[in-house]
Amino acid sequence: MKFFRIFSVENRGDVHHEDECEEWSSLQSVTAAVVVFNGAENIRACLDSLVRQNYPRELIEILIVDNDSTDETQQIVKGYCSRFAHVRMVINPIRGIACSRNLALEQARFEWIAFTDSDCVVPIDWLSRLVEGFERHAQEQHNLAGVGSANEPPQNESRFYRALGVFLQTFLGNHGSAQGKQWSSDRVVSHLPTVNVLYRKECIEQVGGFDVTFGNIGEDQDLSYRLGDRGFVLIYCAGNAVTHKLRPTRTAWFKNMALYGKGRMWLMFKHPQKIKCVLLLPMLLVAVILLPVVFGLGYFGWLPVLYFGSVLIYSIMICFKYKCLDLLFDLYFLYIGTHIAYGVGEWTGILKRRKTKQPQK
Questions:
Q1: Chain mean pLDDT for the chain
Q2: With 70 as the cut, is the pLDDT of residue 361 above it?
Q3: Which of 62, 213, 263, 264 is the most exposed, having the fewest neighbouring CB atoms within 10 Å of its CB?
Q4: Domains plus CATH for the chain?
Q5: CB contact at 8 A, 53 and 126
Q6: CB 253 within 8 A of CB 180
């Protein structure tokens, strides 16, 4: 694999007192890794939040893996590399998030590696809280592989994001996944998305890293499955959500959900023992909607009516719970559109199978 490292070291003349250095000596050194492709619109905000971490700068490496962007992303990151000695960039000409995350693992200078996405803004104490959570839980969980937390859409930015923020807190919006749900207490989970996670690098290496045949979808869920199969533990740590600039429109969101649905089927073909029936319901929904179209209303006409009516009642209940009646129809169409798009994606994942041959290096 050919790649280029672009970084510059700057003597910033930072002065630290002895007592501060003694305090830091007990902390872990961490690589914060971000994979980016054509992310010029968001990468500045992401990097600004990373360089402002209250974690000791001497113990942080910020590693940007650029997937051979064609916009201004590389130029923007180079600017940060020239200003901050602990920021560097690696360019990966082989497209794919899984492949680029593996490159981050190879190039990371430290044994602890945190991942977030290029369209995320992390809180100022993000790394501090991840490290504290890891060390606290590792005292009881000696096979702890990673800790992570939630992601949430930007607050008060648009009506769609307001609706999405509520949607992701409900069962019909997240199916109990740490991908969107924000729990109020720490807990063991089966999966932590790489949008907000801290791993012990050796644990990922023991299970073979990220499976590059997944490309850009499902690679983190697959990793979580393999970690679990090897006896490793993942823990969700409450109260450390990152702000994630999720797809900003219904159309973009539904397209992404179709992609996730396809990835879900790829995961189920590789890990059939992990199948959750509830995650197959969107695929069944698509079939239920098509039955009256193909065979006429007859005995099947009531099935779509039952679904649409039930979701409407559920949407009303959620709006009362979260005091957002003005978002009723936004939520209603978000539920329906997401479920249908995810189901279409699942059918696509059955018809278009994952290529198990790894890309040429």
A1: 89
A2: no
A3: 213
A4: 4-9+27-161+181-246 (3.90.550.10), 266-351 (no CATH)
A5: yes
A6: no
